[in-house]
Amino acid sequence: MHTHTLASPQLLALLQLCDSMFPTGAFAHSYGLETYVQRGLVSDAAGLQALLRGQLRQGLPTADLLICQEAVLARDRSDLPRLRFLGELLSAAKPAAEARKASEEVGRRLLRSGRSLVGPDLLLDALHAEIQDGHSVGHHAIVFGVLGGALGLNVDDILTAYAYTFVAGQASAAVRLVPLGQTDALQSIKALWPAIEAAVQITKNSTLADFGSFTPALDIRAMQHAYLDGRLFMS
Hints:
66% helix
């Protein structure tokens, strides 16, 4: 006789939070990748992987991922002022206006839809009100961390899911931009699994004293995106 073990509610919540059908509008942003492609700097799977490895090494671990981790901790303490501070800090680390606005818009949409998954929650309601009033910045990384904590997910899973969602989103954009075949895109994501794991490990061993990123080429390309002709993405 076979017994069936049901998936945990936390796993199902994580899968839904990362589902491409979740209405965040992230699909409309390339975060500078479109500039790389138009300038001929990324033209195949190898180029995409090299770009993303750099971001997973020099950008995400001590910037967005670190802020996401801190948001989970702030959620555990119901520390709304801390979330406000984290938003200001992450905004200061995003010099490209389009990328900064994209992070804010995706975060706001994620919060709007994510609250329905969590149900009544005082901190989420307060954060939503602060964002609506312009007193807090709902960056994607912050909202993802707060929602993940509210859904009972552990920090490791939240960080891994955030990093994976970023890589998958870039691979999806590359399919439309390079153009990259879907099989090449899937293989690129798998090839980046070790880099995702390494990025999460760096974040777990970091504190806000380590906050910052060093991706000047990406920042420049993200700034240049606003002046491209025939743009497919908003950033």
